[in-house]
Model the fold of this input.
Amino acid sequence: DDDLALDPDYLEQALRIAEEYPFLGAWGGIIEPRYEAPELAPPESQHALMGLRSAQQDLWSNDLNHHSSTPWGGGLCVRRTVVMQYIEELRSNPKRQGLDLQGTKRLFGGDTDIAYTACRLGMGKGVFTRLRVEHMIPASKCSIEHLCRSAEGRGYSEILHHYLLYGSLPSQQVGLQQWARKLLLWRKQSPLERKVTEAFERGRFEAYADLGRRS
Done:
């Protein structure tokens, strides 16, 4: 994308990782911000909604639920075998193409879906600190409205991704301990974080309603 800038040695490092870790099928790195208006920058807790990510150490895994080692966003590196498998899987299940931005609807997950494809092939996925991307962020993307739209899209996409991968909706049952943790977190959150959390849950609820009608 034209709002991303790779470090000068990014491709060189990406190739070295390909050689050093032949068992990896997809990998990426750190995505740092360059704000048009630094005074409007949201707190770090909202960075993921802006396509940013940090990492303190190199991580890799073949566990789909190990999110810290799942690469996404700008600078994603994928082996050809994984790409070809992903194309075949899209042909057999075209609905998976819905895991990306579409018009004004902010959906996410296409890059994560590619990383998961590597795992299904018996390979791994990873995130490396030596790979760095700078993301140019305009002032408009720092607004509460934009953050909430992104959060709502991520909530929707989380349910959609599960539905497309497994053919069923994830369980909506929440135990007492989970409710207690959510309540405790809610009390600690800032007004902005609460609005974003509400938007995320709204997206999940919308996905359950939409996909439940299709089932």
Observations:
- Residues 26 and 78 are 4 Å apart (CA to CA).
- The helical segments are 10-20, 80-92, 110-120, 144-166, 176-188, 191-214.
- Strands lie at 4-6, 24-35, 59-61, 77-78, 124-137.
- The chain has six helices and five strands.
